[in-house]
C-alpha cells in the first residue's frame, strides 16, 4: 500500500519587504542578500497572524468534508509556539472544525519536527489506512532587527494531508537519521528571538547532509545519478545550494546540470518568502512540483530535513501521476498579489507582535485579508476570529 502526501498547501502573510531595500538600509550590498544569501523578498508577519492562524489558513482551503470526517490525527510542528503546555494543534483542530475524536499534538525539534510529524503520520496511516492525518509545519522565524540572521527571517505554514493512495508523493520507508546534542541554534524560554551561531550552524547543516546522504546511498546501493531531484530544508536558499554543490562532483555532468536546474524550481518560492523553519523543506517541495515542467510520474525525489540542535533525515518519495491535483495551485497568484512594505513599516510590525505578558490586548485586523486572524488577548487567552463564522 502506498502512503504519503495527498494534498500540500501553504499560507504566509500578505506583506513582504524587498531584500535589496533591506540590504541598503543595513549598509550591505544588495547582492549579498540577493545572491550571497539567496533571498529576494521576505515575508513580514503582522501581529494579526501567529502560528495558530498561519496553520489554520494553510490547511482550511484544501480540506473537503470527506477529509475532515477522516482525519483522526493532527500534528503541528513548530519552534515558535504560543504556549509552553497546550498544543497548537488543539487550537487549529477547533478552528478547522475537526472531529473531537482526534489526536492533537505539537512536535518540536527546531526546523526538523515537521518531518518527524510526517513520518509519524505515515506510520499511523499504514496501520489505519481508511483514516487521514493532518501535518502542519508553522513558524515565524525571528532573529532580531540589525542581527546577522535578520535577512534569513520569514514565516508561514505548510499543511500536508497524509493518506493511503496519495495524490502527490508516496513516501518510501527508507529514512537515514542523525541526531546529536549540538549548540548551533537554540531559544531559551526567556528569549523571543533565536540564538544562533550562524556560520557554525551552516557548517553543521552541510556535515549532516553529507552524512545522511552518503549513508543512504550506501544502504540502498544507489548513486546520485538515480535521483530526479534533491530537495532541501531552506533556511535561506543559498544554504540548499551549498549542500547540493557539496555532492555534485559525484554526479555525471548531465546529471549535475539537471539537479541544478531542478534546484532553481525547488528554491523559487522560498526565495520570495524567507525562512519558515519547520515548513521550509515542504515549501521547497511544493515549489518544485508547481514550477518544474520537467517532472513525471514515478520520478524519485530526495528530501533532506535538518533541524539545528541537531537532527537530520534523508528520505525519498515517488511522484504520483495526478500530483498537480493535490497542490496549492493558487499560490503563485497569492504571492504575486502581496503588498510591499518599506523597511520602517517592517520594523514597526516586527516590534508590534502580541506582548508576552498578562495584559488584555487588542490587535488591529482590518487590513489582514486572511480567513483566520488573531484579534488579541483576553484574560491571558489568545482570541482568534474565523471570518467565515462572523
Ligand atoms: N555579492 C555576492 N555575494 C556576497 C556579497 C556580494 N556583494 N557580499 C557577501 N556575499 C556572500 C558571502 O560571500 C557569503 O557567501 P558564502 O556563504 O557562500 O561564502 C554570503 O554572502 C553571506 O555573507 P556572510 O558575510 O557570510 O554573511 P553574514 O556573516 O552576515 O551571515 C548567515 C550569514 C547565513 C550566517 C546569517 O544570516 C545567519 O546567521 N543566519 C541564520 C543561521 C542559519 O540560517 N543557519 C542555517 C542552518 S539551519
What would your notes on this structure say?
Residues 2-165 form the Hydroxymethylglutaryl-coenzyme A synthase N-terminal domain. Keywords: Acyltransferase, Transferase. This is Hydroxymethylglutaryl-CoA synthase. Residues 264-355 form the Hydroxymethylglutaryl-coenzyme A synthase C-terminal domain. The structure is a single chain. This protein is an alpha+beta fold and 390 residues long. It has 2 domains: 3-169 and 328-386, Peroxisomal Thiolase, Chain A, domain 1; 173-323, Peroxisomal Thiolase, Chain A, domain 1, CATH 3.40.47. Helix content is 34%, strand content 25%. Strands 1, 4, 5, 6, 7, 8, 9, 12, 13 and 14 form a 10-stranded mixed β-sheet that branches. Helix 7 crosses helix 8 (237-247). The longest helix has 23 residues, at 198-220. The chain starts with a strand and ends with a strand. The relative contact order is 0.19. The structure holds coenzyme A. Residues 29, 31-32, 35-37, 148-149, 151-152, 196, 198-199, 201-202, 205, 235-236, 239, 306, 308 line the site of coenzyme A.
